[in-house]
Amino acid sequence: GDSVTQMEGPVTLSEEAFLTINCTYTATGYPSLFWYVQYPGEGLQLLLKATKADDKGSNKGFEATYRKETTSFHLEKGSVQVSDSAVYFCALSPNQAGTALIFGKGTTLSVSS
Amino acid sequence: DGGITQSPKYLFRKEGQNVTLSCEQNLNHDAMYWYRQDPGQGLRLIYYSQIVNDFQKGDIAEGYSVSREKKESFPLTVTSAQKNPTAFYLCASAPVSSGLYNEQFFGPGTRLTVL
Q1: Which of A72-76, A92-96, B49-53, B95-99 has the lowest mean pLDDT?
Q2: Do the Cβ atoms of A32 and B43 come within 8 Å?
Q3: Which of A41-55, B73-87, B91-105 has the lowest mean pLDDT?
Q4: pLDDT for residue B98 is more than 60
Q5: A51 neighbourhood in chain B, CB within 8 Å
Q6: What is the pLDDT of residue B99?
């Protein structure tokens, strides 16, 4: 079945460092891909998305490109801030109406000043 | 403002008791979902519903029950049959449109603790 694998954390960085969180997927068909962010004690917020191959999603300085050839959707940010400390989830949608998203296990990011 | 509300934010239960977690949305979404989150395990799907009066089991439905009598509401009952219910529970909703991705919108969550 469809699945998502993301790098295990925690990832610990200093402020202004470059961030990469790896995400790869297995899916039949042409899924949509998402990155969600969860701040402590809160629900998930959509960070960015891509619906077809070679699409680049971007938001708040974060970017991810849908790479069909490598089945990847890695999250990047050029300069992280302390406020970016959170748990990041990669997810895919099989693009069947109403079906649930499939999530990776999450990667905890901790940024220190 | 449109959104998803979950209540209560914190819930304590004694062993052997059933408890019901509330989830309400005013986004006019057809589909609603319940996930369970445990440390290091990501989100696991409990139940989902694509339309009123219909719902499907997810990956970990045992010990849980749901109802979908109204489009806006999708309450989750954690029964005494659920052996390890202490977790963070997240409700989500999504529009159901053929051919489109299923971006889900999440509520703030309910943290359930069994005493």
Answers
A1: B95-99
A2: no
A3: B91-105
A4: no
A5: 101
A6: 47
Q: Cβ-count burial of B60 within 10 angstroms (0-12 exposed, 13-18 middle, 19+ buried)?
A: middle
What does DSSP say about strands B4-7 and A56-59: parallel, antiparallel, or unpaired?
unpaired
Q: Is B38 helix (H, G, I), strand (E, B) or coil?
A: coil
Q: Which of A44, A49, A98 is closest, CB to CB, to B50?
A: A98
A43/B90 CB distance under 8 A:
yes
CA A45 to chain centre: 11
Name every residue whose Cβ is closer than 8 Å to that of residue B95 and which is 6 or more positions away in sequence.
B27, B28, B29, B30, B31
Query: What does the block give as tokens for A56?
Result: 């680049």
Parallel, antiparallel, or unpaired: how do β-strands A11-14 and A107-112 relate? parallel
